Amino acid sequence: MPSPITRKSLVNNTSKTFYRNRVWDSQKPPFTQPLYLDLRQRVGVDGFSKVDVRFASYDPLSSVSGNLTVAETLAYEKFRDSIHAKAETLINFAQRREAAEMMATRLMSLAKFARAVRKRDPKAMASALGFDVRKASEIGLDARKTSRRGRWALPKTTGKIWLEYHFGWEPLVKDIGACIDVLSDAPPNGTVKGRKTLTWKTDNRDASSGHVVEWRCGCRLQAEVAVSNPNMFLANQLGLTNPAIVAWDLVPFSFIADWFGTLGTWINSWTDFLGLSLVNSQTGRLAQAVDQSYYWTKPPGKPKGWYVASTVTDVHVRRTLGLAKPSVIFRPRKRLSLTRAATAVALLINFL
Length: 352
Known about the structure:
The chain is α+β, with helices and mostly antiparallel strands. It has helices at residues 60-63, 65-83, 89-94, 96-119, 122-128, 148-184, 230-237, 243-249, 254-260, 263-268, 338-351, and strands at 5-15, 18-27, 37-46, 190-205, 209-227, 276-297, 305-321.
């Protein structure tokens, strides 16, 4: 039987440069349940200006609410991915006609190429791969007679091959591997975690003073996972329980939207944990602001310039029960991967 939970609070304000406000739950042994915690702490360090941290104009958690939502959604994705491999059987089934026709054409080309190699016929080998050596100008091989169509023929052929691989062969092979993993691996059992942290900086100065704030916010999801309905869990892992994500995936270029947003994650969250039992789930949120006050001045014995007058480190930690849900957001900007770049270029060439 769970021990009774008691809520406590304590405020420490031992000096002007130190402040702590703590609200937490406690229980007697055995310690079997996650407990609520809210901790706010500010520590100030004087430069040449006195600092009083007992009163603050902002709360880090509320000040970073937008970025914290991003961290919660990305932490949710990591938590979900840590549970088990997931196949996309229903999506591939819906796309079976296009994939089958594309792969059948490619297999026939490979068979022709193999026969040409066996016969040691270079022209037939080139023809099987889609290159007509008798009309080299059409694929841009003859610089003297290169037409506009010829300049685009070779990149367009290469782009089509890449798109065929990226949207036909690669998903199918990965899905076969995921199905094997789902059917052969033991169901998840134990503690699962997902974590994401974001950092950034703001710099606001005028001619004589300013503030430079280094921000950090993060989210951690944790729960004890066990399978409660093996058949439902297996169907979910095989991608057979969420028609909405199939409809979204069949929207043209929805995958590009998922590069920059999380609508697919939000739709998937409707059925992510079917057949699973999540016990002692909890969400931890962290926000930290290191605020440095600057002044353009001339201290005694030093040259005139920018100097740190004071530094205030403000931290707010909160642990709540239950898992944070994903939101529809824009993903943080990051460097474009080679795969995404190649796919974007191939699509653009084919459109042109």
